[in-house]
Every structure is written in structure tokens, then in C-alpha cells.
Amino acid sequence: MIPPSSRSTVPSPGRLGLVEASAAANLSLLGWTDEDSTELLWSLSRSPDADLALRTLARLAEDLGDGWSELDARLRTDKSLRGRMFALAGSSSALGDHLVSEPDKWRLLTTCTESLPTADELRESMLASVGAVAEAGDDALGQVFRAELTGPKAIIALRTAYRDHLMILAAADLAATVENEPVVPYEVVGRQLSDLADAALTAALSVAVTVTFPDGPCSVRLAVIAMGKCGAQELNYVSDVDVVFVAEPSNSLATRMAGEMMRIGSSAFFEVDAALRPEGKQGELVRTLDSHLAYYQRWAKTWEFQALLKARAMTGDAELGQAYVDAVTPMVWVASEREDFVPEVQAMRRRVEEMVPAELREREIKLGRGSLRDVEFAVQLLQLVHGRADDSLHERGTVAALSALATGGYIGRDDAANLTASYEFLRLIEHRLQLQKLQRTHLLPPDDDDEAMRWLARAAHMRPDGNHDATGVLRQEIRRNAQRIRRLHARLFYRPLLESVARLDSDSLRLSSDSAIRQLSALGYSAPQNALGHLSALVGMGARKGRIQSLLLPTLLEWLGDTPDPDAGLLAYRRLSEEVAEQSWFLRLVRDEGPVAQRLMQVLGSSEYLRGVLVNAPEVIRLFADGSTGPKLLDVDPTETYGAILKSSARYDDPVRAVAAARSLRRYELARVASADILGLLEVPEVCRALSSVWAAVINAALDAAVRASVAERGGTAPASIAIIGMGRLGGGELGYGSDADVLFVCEPAEGADDSDAVKWANAIADRVRKLLGSPSQDPPLEVDTGLRPEGRNGPVVRTLSAYDAYYSQWAQPWEVQALLRAHQVAGDQDLGIRFLLMADRIRYPEGGVSEDAVREIRRIKARVDAERLPKGADPKTHTKLGRGGLADVEWTVQLLQLRHAHRIPALHNTSTLECLDAIGAAELMSPGDVDLLRQAWLTATKARNALVLVRGKPTDQLPAPGKVLSAVAQVAGWPSGDAGEFLDNYLRVTRRAKAVVERAFGS
């Protein structure tokens, strides 16, 4: 801030930031107008308000008279004193006035060079100010003191002594703004202010004893309990001090003494508030210990136990005060077992915030959004819920509690560090605002009050950066810290784990063996001993990880208990935890990120398919968290995934590595889609489209890798272009989890290439693609099926486009024409693929439609399929593919209508079953009711078929008999309450009605 070239000359008032007209005269009065005063002047310019500081110093010089020369000499040589004096004078007009009122008190600012006074020194000083001594029979550390001064004299003496100590602390706290003095940590300031409050009320109580018992010894044992910030020893410069009184006996004398202490304290120091006592301001001011306990045991509300978290014996009868704290503390740590404890605390915070006028919420740093209360409520709620089983959380102070929560694994270290930093920053701002005029305030200056913001920025040690002046930096820091507090508050304060943990008994929280086995059996675990072994392994994962698992497991076990297979889910959670044991993000995510834990348990306890996939693709679990518009599982665009798979595989020349890269992303996408499906976040068509897209991408990647490798091996160029045509469900974009990929390979010789050589090369490529995709893997299989090619499995795997054209034009059987209805280009040379589809259009959508002979043949084949294709032992009512009203029934009906009418209805030129049904309805080929019945049957059967694969982990089309597996299928299929009976009844009803439509449509 000080230009080096300017240090040798006396700076003008304007350059020092002095704008008042009296500045020059005041500088002259102080004798600071020569070059010897340059360093003093530059120090003055760093004061938060240089004009205020100069004005205060001028007043001090006038009152000191000849004594000014001594102070002036000290200021020129003692940088520490200069920093404290200038910072105090420029930060607090109230403490500046106090200094000027007795100007020789500047010497007090030289006493805090080494250290601040101890609690005992503060108490001795405050007692000495009113001449207080221990009653006869008590030693110097006795419980009862009697003051020499009473009345107005006592109040003046107490106020003066209190302001002296406040001035000493503030000067040390502020000094770093002017000179390079050490910054006094927030916790030291809060503790010093609390110690000073204890000392002040000890002295006030000594006066109250003298007033209440003027002629004899004190006959009442009175303990004063500090609550709130004073109880936590994190007091502000200007704050109410909340107290509770305990007396033995609780009589009129005790009440008078307590009331007198409050009156004296409120007149001399700060507002002494006893509103946190039982029944609030309507309750008795003083109660016996037994009366307090009776109230808390029977009548106390949730907020009162939250307040007791900070209770501390501060003065008066030390033994009685400690007895009170010892008696109420156990009640605090079981309060979270009260019904609706967590929602009540959350509702209380919302009410506090709503009390702040809307126009002040952004300026209110104590109660508004992203304020001190957000931190305090979040920390206290976490303490109260988890402190039942962990004594290390029994801390009164917010910062100490944050540290304990982080050490215990209840919140992340980074979250704790960020909350602590933001909390201390806002407390610093609060302190500076209050010091200015020694007024109780928590309001930031209005945004348009640049001068006030400039003063606050300088008082808070803000320095300009490359983009903003100090005021801009302050505004930026206030906004950043408020946003950070609000974000972390929302994540911690509304964490779903809290309410669940609060409902559990203490045995469950500590996971004792006997109670754990009982709990596990009650929750539905069929092998509780095995489950207990998994719990032991999880808790034994290491000090911090084990503590976090201990925190999570009671709730996770409860959530798993609501799933179809909690035993398998717990085993999967253990495997997953061990797989990612070295990755810190996993447990942090499960603990901190909203619904992640509950969603993960639902998935692991429901799906054998996902239990395998997630262990190999754990990163997907990050998507279980909520984003700005909903679950992140829905933020992934299948089109982007398709491109990412191709891009990832293209990085490798080795086709095995290229396909492995594609498999990895496929695994990730399968885990994402299946998780979203189980959680009810995706509809059936969305699932099918996503699965079809990822299948097409992997096929494309395998084909591209095989071609690139072959060309590199051959040298030169490829002798043919290749396209892969999707058939069946792949062509229709309707793949399920257990579906194979039906495809056709088509090639076209390059210019000048021999047809036979081109086809031979293309066959080798097709064979390589199938082997690459079919290689052994822990992932769900990648089976490529070419059985729908011309002549079926007896025909060549690859043909040229012209060969396909010749075959279909001359020899195509009705079933082959029907199969072409689902043909769609999915991989390879796009131009070749489109030309294949244009050729296919002439076959599948012929002028005038297919012949009646072809229609009769389709009906004959369908009848044969119904009679012969159903697997042995399968139930025709519940086979999702070939059963009554199942997928085959619906799809054959739609395809028959396509064959008969697509030549005149372009909308039927579509490979999607559902979109064709829409076109059938629009063209009135069926009644709207029949179309809807077919659509519902197709969706119901597809959903059930997918759910079967998810539950069992392998392809299957047959719904099981009523029992555990069917219940799991019902739950995964999203059936309300997972009722297997209702699910099966609905399936049978929907498919029965669809079968009636099929019979009418196929017979007409």
C-alpha cells in the first residue's frame, strides 16, 4: 500500500485516505507534519477508518496535554502499540470514546504484548473493581464474594473495568489490520470474551450478595449456568448472555439475589437473559436442582434439550452448578430418541429463518440463509443424533464439535474444514460490526453504502486482489461463504440418515453382537450370523473407515431390510466397500450426499444383475446423488454415451484393448440404466432405447477395431465396405437386459476389388467381431446372433448388397420379409447401410401390400410358434415372450398389420412396436381401446421381462411361481408395495385382454 518512492516525503492527507476538513489541523496538533512522522502517517492510513482514528488521537492528545509527548514517542518506536492503538481508534468509536474518557488508559494497550489475561486474572480484576472479597470462612477461590461497592458506584466501576478489558482484547484482535501483528484466532477471542463474561457476572453476583444479605452471611446456594454462546465459550463482543439459575433453597432471597445480579449485569456489561429457563419468561426465575430435573423429564420440548447442549457452570456455587450440568447432560444425549426429533429441529431452523424479513435475509449473517445459524443447527443436530453412542461428540463449542464430527467420520474432513473456515469468517465479520459502536448487530451494511463496506473490509483484514478492491473482495467472500454454508447445511442438516439413526436404539448404534443378531432377524435377514460377519468386516476396515461404517450400517441395514434380498445386498455392499477401499469418495458420498445411501441399498438388495455390474463399475454410484434438476442418473444423454464409447475405443490400435474400452463404458451405462430403472426413474421405452444405443455403440466399436486391425495387418486399404444391420429388438430400439443382438452383415467390394475376395475378407471381419464381442467377461454377455439372415443358419453370414437384393427379390420367404420389418442400420458404413434399407423397403413395403398367401403363411407360422416354441414346462399364461398376450403376440399382430397396410400408410414404415401402434391407432386400423390394450400388454411384459433379468442376473422369460422371487420381480417392476399377488393378477389380466385383441386381429 505504501509507495516506496513516497516514504521519504510527508504524504498529503488525501493520499492517507483522510477526507475530513479537520484532518490537516489534527495532524498539526499531533505534530505529525514533518518527515520524521512519515512512517506513523502510513500506519495511520492503514487504519480501517483513518479519519476516525485521527480524530480520536487528536482528542486523546488534547486530554493528555503534556503527557502526549510520552505516548507520541512510544508510537514512533513501538510498532505493536501503534498497531493496536491505530486499529482500535479506527475501528470502534465506542472504545475510542472509552479511551479518551480516561486518557492515561493508553498504557493498558501496552500490557497485552506477551499474552492476554487468564480467566483467573480477569476474575480477580473484576472483583477488585468493586472491592469484593470472599465471605468469612471462604478462601480466595470460595463460592461467595461480598462487594464493598453497591448501587450506581458499583455499576460505574464494573462498567469501567469491563470496558478496559474489552478494549485490551479488541486492540489485540484488530492490530493485524495496521501492522504485521499476529492475528488472534477466533476461538481465542470467543473464549476470552466468555471468560470476561464469567468474571463480570462473578463480580455482579458479589454486589447482589451484598444487597440481598446486607447484615449477615449469604444463606442461599446459587449457581449460575451459562447457556448459548457463553456456555460454549464462543461469545461475541456484544451479545446477550443467556443464563439459568439453580438454587438451594429456591426462596424469595434466592430470587432476589438472582434478579439483582441480572439487573447489575445488564446495566454494567450486557443484557443478562434468563429466557432459556424452564417455561421461559413465564417460569420461575430460580428453581432447585430437583425442580429443574422434574421439568426436563416431563415437560421439556426438543429445543430445550438442544439449548442444554451448551450448558456450563459459570459462577456462583461451583458444586451445585456442576451437579446441575452432570444431571442434565445425560438427558441431552438421549433427546434424539424423542418422536419426530429430527423433523422438529429442522422445522425450528426454518421458522427462525422465516422470522427474518425477506428484504434483510441476504444481509443477516446470524439468522439468514447461509448464516451462522445454519452452521450451528447442522452441527448441533449431528451431535445430538450421533452423540448418544459417541462421547467424543460431547463438545459445547461449534468449532470443536465440527472437529470431533470430522475425526469420528460423521462428516468429511473437507466439509468440516470448509464449514469451520466459513463460520469463523462470518464470526469475524460479526465481531467487526459489533465493535464499531459496541452495539448488538448482525446486519451487513446495505450494498449501496460503499463507505460502510469499505470500513468493514479494512477492519476484516481484506486486501485488494487483481480484480477487486478490498470492498469487492469482501462482498465476494461474503457471498462465497454464505453459498458454501448453505450448500453444506442442506447436505448435512437434511441428510436422510439422521432421522433413521435417531429412531434406532443404542444397542443397534453400537452393533453389539446379541442385539445385532436380534435386529437383523427382525429386519428380515435370513442368515443373521453371516450378516454379522459382514458387519464385523466392514467395521474393521480401518480406524476412520470403520467409524464411518459404524455410523452408516444401522441405517443401511434398515433400508436393506425393506428390499427383496437383504442378505445378498449386504454381501454386495461389503464387496463394493472392499473394492473401493482405497478411494475416499465412496464412503463420503454414501454418508453425505442426500439419497445416495438409500438408493444404493435399494439397488443392491433388489438386483443380482446390478450386484455384479456395480462392483465392476462403482463410479456409477456417484450418479445416485441429486443434481440441480433431479437424480444425476438422468443427466446422461445416451447419444453422448454412444459417442464416448466410439471415441474411447478408437484410441487403441489393438482390437482387444479397443473392445475392452468399449466394454468398460458399456458396463458403466448398463449400471446407470439398470439403477435408474430399479429406482423408478426411467420408463420402459427409455430403458429400451438406452440399452439399444449402447449395444449399437459397442458393435460399432468392435467393427471399427476389427477393420482397422485387418487393414494394418494387410497393408493398403480395405477391399470392401461393411455395414451391420440391426434386426429384431436391436433394429426396433427395444432391447432388454437379456436380449441378444440380431444382426445382418452386408458388404460392398471396393472399386477394382474382386467380389469373392471382398466377401471372404468381410466374413473374416464378421467372425472377428463376433469373437471380440463374445470373449469371456464378468459383464453381461455380448451375444451377436445372425440367425435372421437369408436362409437362416444355413446361409452365408455375409453377403454383398446385390446378393441380398437378388435373394430377397426372388427367394424371400414370408418370415424373412417379416423379419425385415425391424431392419435398421446400426454400425459400419452408413451409406451402405442406408442403401440396404432402401432395398429392404421394396421387399417389406411392396406396392399393393403383401399377398394374401403371405398373410396366410404368417398366420400359419404364428400358430406353429404358439404350439411348438414354448419351452417345455413353461406356463403359457406367464411366459413374457411366447405366452398368452405376451411380447410375441403383440409384435406379430403389429407386424401383420404393417405387412398388410404399410404400402399405403407411411407412418407404418417404422421399426418400433410402440410407434407402429400409435400409427395403427391414428389410421383407425384398430379401435383406440384395442390399441391401448396391446400397448399396455407390451409395456407390462417388457417391464416384467426386464425385472426378471435384473432380479435373477441372467436372461429368462418365465415369471416364477408365487414366492420370494416373484415378490422381488414385482418390487423391481415398480409394483406398489411389491405385492406379488397383485402384480401377478395385473399381469394376467392385462395379457388376457391383449390375447383377445390378438385373436381378433390375426383372424381378420
Automatic annotation (TrEMBL):
NCBIfam families: PRK14109.1 (NF010707). Residues 133-323, 598-837 form the Glutamate-ammonia ligase adenylyltransferase repeated domain. The keyword Transferase applies. Residues 505-1004 are annotated as: Adenylyl transferase. Its cofactor is Mg(2+). Involved in the regulation of glutamine synthetase GlnA, a key enzyme in the process to assimilate ammonia. When cellular nitrogen levels are high, the C-terminal adenylyl transferase (AT) inactivates GlnA by covalent transfer of an adenylyl group from ATP to specific tyrosine residue of GlnA, thus reducing its activity. Conversely, when nitrogen levels are low, the N-terminal adenylyl removase (AR) activates GlnA by removing the adenylyl group by phosphorolysis, increasing its activity. It comes from Rhodococcoides corynebacterioides. It is an enzyme of class 2 (transferase). HAMAP family: GlnE. It catalyses: [glutamine synthetase]-L-tyrosine + ATP = [glutamine synthetase]-O(4)-(5'-adenylyl)-L-tyrosine + diphosphate; [glutamine synthetase]-O(4)-(5'-adenylyl)-L-tyrosine + phosphate = [glutamine synthetase]-L-tyrosine + ADP. It comes from the Bacteria. Belongs to the GlnE family. Residues 1-497 are annotated as: Adenylyl removase. The keyword S-adenosyl-L-methionine does not apply. Keywords: ATP-binding, Magnesium, Multifunctional enzyme, Nucleotide-binding, Nucleotidyltransferase, Transferase. Residues 346-493, 863-1000 form the PII-uridylyltransferase/Glutamine-synthetase adenylyltransferase domain. The gene is glnE. This is Bifunctional glutamine synthetase adenylyltransferase/adenylyl-removing enzyme. PANTHER family: BIFUNCTIONAL GLUTAMINE SYNTHETASE ADENYLYLTRANSFERASE_ADENYLYL-REMOVING ENZYME (PTHR30621:SF0), GLUTAMINE SYNTHETASE ADENYLYLTRANSFERASE (PTHR30621). Its EC number is 2.7.7.89, 2.7.7.42. One of its GO terms (molecular function) is [glutamate-ammonia-ligase] adenylyltransferase activity.
